[in-house]
Design a protein that fits this description.
Largest sheet: 4 strands, mixed
CATH architecture: Alpha-Beta Complex
Number of helices: 3
Mean pLDDT: 92
Order of helices and strands: EEEEHEEEHH
Helix content: 10-25%
CATH topology: Nucleoside Triphosphate Pyrophosphohydrolase
Low-confidence stretches: none
Length: 141
């Protein structure tokens, strides 16, 4: 998809999922971009797919969890390959109570973990999170 200026835009979604104790679900990216860094579950929106459908599909593929897509939290743009712009829309998503222990890394995720806000801040300080993730989440949540 290209915008009015001819720049290729890649629509993507992310899911902010918290368990009953307030911990946030992070996945370890198994592929580029940002391979080896932690982020929230998400990925590209497929042709003909709505954002909520993409959130549910991506979370299922990457974590095995079935979620309900909630409200849009915010939107960021990141530079992509060959001058493209990655247009990321992050949504709150809700997993059924008690399902946190059922999450398993799959598809593009090389690992996953539930983290407290303090743990996420420490990971960010060590450069273990995708660039700008925590700052964006703080500004929305």
């Amino acid at each position: 998809m290209t915008d009015d200026s001819g720049v290729r835009r890649i629509p993507c979604v992310g899911a902010v999922i918290r368990d009953e104790s307030g911990r946030m679900l992070l996945i370890l990216r198994g592929h580029e971009p940002a391979k080896g860094l932690w982020s929230i579950p998400g990925g590209r929106v497929e042709p003909g797919e709505t954002d909520p459908q993409a959130v549910v599909r991506e979370v299922s593929e990457e974590t095995g969890l079935t979620v309900r897509c909630g409200p849009l939290l915010g939107r960021v743009e990141r530079p992509g390959l060959d001058g493209a712009i990655v247009d990321i829309r992050d949504y709150q998503a809700f997993a059924p109570p008690g399902s946190a222990g059922l999450a398993r890394a799959g598809d593009d995720a090389a690992g996953l973990m539930w983290v407290t806000d303090a743990q996420a801040e420490a990971m960010d300080a060590r450069g273990e999170l995708t660039d700008g993730l925590l700052a964006a989440l703080r500004s929305w949540c």
